[in-house]
Design a protein that fits this description.
Two copies of one chain form a homodimer. Chain A is mostly helical and 172 residues long. In chain A, 72% of the residues lie in helices and 6% in strands. Strand 1 of chain A pairs parallel with strand 1 of chain B. Chain B binds a DNA duplex (30 and 30 nucleotides) through helix 4 and helix 6.
DNA sequence: ATGAAAATCACTCGAAAGTATGAGGGCAAA
DNA sequence: TTTGCCCTCATACTTTCGAGTGATTTTCAT
């Protein structure tokens, strides 16, 4: 966002200044060129006494108008475009109140639903026995879950598992 | 920031060089154009004498030539710098809000410095043995600490202690 | 300097946690 | 249908944890 603003500050005036400068340049150059042309023609007229004044002015006007038309056309058609695409890639390592499971890390870990369930209860301080009661399964089942859990998470203790899980955003 | 610098590096010297180039170019082009025009006029003049109704053609030619000139000029002068900058900005949302111990809860709990130290290591997943090694004391000492810790915190397990401590802001 | 709290350490014992292994049923993909 | 993973449960064994008790030393404030 800030970059865009800064770009606007710097580039747009720069561009318009340049345009203005060139427009003036064109006018100046053209004006003087035409004046020169007229003088030239005048000089030639004196030399050859052929030309009609009105015709030269007419032709000059035509030339001027059509040159202007050409420039206008070109300006309309070829528009200088400076395009800046800023892709803001936000990486949230956030652990604020609204908890959302870190899918990426969860997939990487390869935990099953049940194992995550056990992990959550573990993090809340429940013992294996309490978890077993809560989930209506045997203590041995919970032991199996915890074992596989530790293996998958590459930890040795429940406290480590909880710490790692919290750090990776697997649990609140 | 880098983007702006890069722009400065590329565009500014480019711009001045171009300006200088065009200043000369304009003079050169105009000079030759006018010369050509004069020759054209001279040539057409001869034709004009012969073909009466060639005036329209003459004017048309003039218009065409100057329109082309205008377009050419505009194209040369206003060079479309189509620059596409794709910036990938990575924004890390800070979760490491500098931890500050909740003095109130800490006092209420009545934990000693050493106990808090043990609690912290416990929260990091260390076993009593590892904590003992880390603090250069015996395992029994750590056991004593943890026992008193649990008593003071009114919990039964280390996981509970960690959970409660985190919840109360005693540890990060 | 004196007493209270803290820190240190030890020993026992039971509870909880964790390891290893095997096994049966369910379910979905190959 | 086979294969692989998940969930379940069991048994046996080891390790760690936690409770309880008691003791010595250090630290610190009154």
């Amino acid at each position: 966002m800030e970059i865009l603003n800064e770009k606007a500050k710097i580039n747009l005036p720069d561009m318009s200044t340049r345009n203005f400068f060139f427009k003036n340049k064109i006018i100046l150059v053209y004006g003087s060129s035409l004046a020169l042309l007229l003088f030239l023609l005048k000089w030639l007229e004196l030399r050859f006494v052929i030309f009609d004044h009105a015709l030269e002015v007419y032709i000059g006007a035509i030339a001027l108008v059509f040159t202007g038309l050409g420039i206008w056309l070109a300006l309309k058609l070829i528009k200088p475009t400076i395009k800046t695409i800023i892709v803001e890639k936000e990486i949230y390592v956030n652990n604020s109140i609204p908890f959302s499971l870190n899918e990426k890390e969860f997939d990487k870990m390869g935990l099953s639903k049940r194992e995550l369930e056990v992990l959550n209860l573990m993090a809340e301080g429940y013992s294996n026995g309490e978890i077993a009661t809560r989930l209506f399964v045997s203590l041995n089942t919970i032991k199996t879950h915890t074992s596989k859990l530790f293996e998958k998470m590459d930890v040795k203790r429940r406290t480590q598992a909880v710490e790692k899980a919290k750090r990776l955003g697997l649990i609140p």
